[in-house]
User: Fold D-galactonate dehydratase family protein from Candidatus Brachybacterium intestinipullorum.
Amino acid sequence: MTIERIDVDVTSPGRNFVTAVVTTGDGVVGLGDGTLNGREFAVVSYLRDHVAPTLIGRDESQIESIWQYLYRSPYWRRGPVTMAAVAAIDMALWDIAAKKAGVPLYKLLGGASRTGLLSYAHASGTTIEKLNEAIHGYVEQGFRAVRIQSGVPGLDQIYGVHDSAPGGKYEYEPAGRTETGAAMRPAEETWDTAAYLRHLPSVFAAVREEFGGDLRILHDGHHRMSPIEAARLAKDIEPYAPFWLEDCTPGEDQTALRLVRHHSTTPLAIGEVFNSVHDYQTLITERLIDYVRSSATHAGGITGLRQIMTFAGIYGIRSGFHGPTDVSPVGMAANLHLGLALHNFGIQEYMPHSETTLSVFRTSYRFEDGLLHPGETPGLGVGLDREAASRYEYQPAYLPVNRLRDGSVHDW
Ligand code: EZ4
Ligand code: CO
Assistant:
């Protein structure tokens, strides 16, 4: 059969999502996530204006060939916009292939290598007490791993740090909506690396004391440290046996991690902003990381992410796929099917979507006893209620800008 039509849906049920809806001549529909937080319409245009017209009439079962066509042929390769667009098509084609085969997608990717995917939750608190309260909430839900982010004395607002809402809701939304109207601009936050480095080891100490040695504890540095600052933090938290330190330095500077490695045995994870296997070349061959942080959505789909994981596997490096709310339920399902099949799976980030999001995207993945499972529905196992989706209009929203105390723009 052939691809008959490609629609690109934009909807905002709680946050913005971009979804490719690919329909074949025999009426099978596949979904792919192309959401790029804060740059949504760049991907929409790439898909509508430059990709969809070139794919109509092609054999939708030629997933690898279409991936290579979209990657190699346009001359301009890689980059977050291009690779999110490639991802959206790739996921939709895998969804169609598995639906046609009548199997959940993981069975086409080699079948299950495990019974479920170890997952971690996001716990945060403006104080250590509030943070511990949030961790208790997640442990009670069955999580065996948590990412801990905490307030820092002297800093007002830190990205990803919120106290739990009453009623045990621990959600936060990465992209904030501020300054509406003509002056629509991202929020601004003030950052101080020295204050953070002084405070964070005491947070790790307190959490270990409260929860003992079994709980896996992760932390995200959001690319804010220089190599020498990152080395110091990795060394200072090492006694508390972190599961990983994520994004300690700006991602594109691959050799920065050599210095961190020289000073510490704290496991390192990086890559949520990467979009191709080439971004990992030095990191993987020099064994500078322990976990790959990419998601199918931002790394060229299941085909692109599988390339990265095959390469990583040769060096014993495992997955830790990105799973924030800006990876749509479709993208999350793609991560889960691949994770279940991979030999070198490590851990999966799990930031549950809001009820509003899940009323538009109907998922069949499940979370039980600390583990995620993609479910047994044929394909990716996610349905999009396009009627409901059309009622949620796009809302401009951005990640905050990060500045140092002197007003200079800082990494992130
Ligand atoms: O900042 O998803 O590990 N998770 C993260 C996220 C990212 C956002 C970017 O869109 O760092 O919160
Ligand atoms: Co991160």
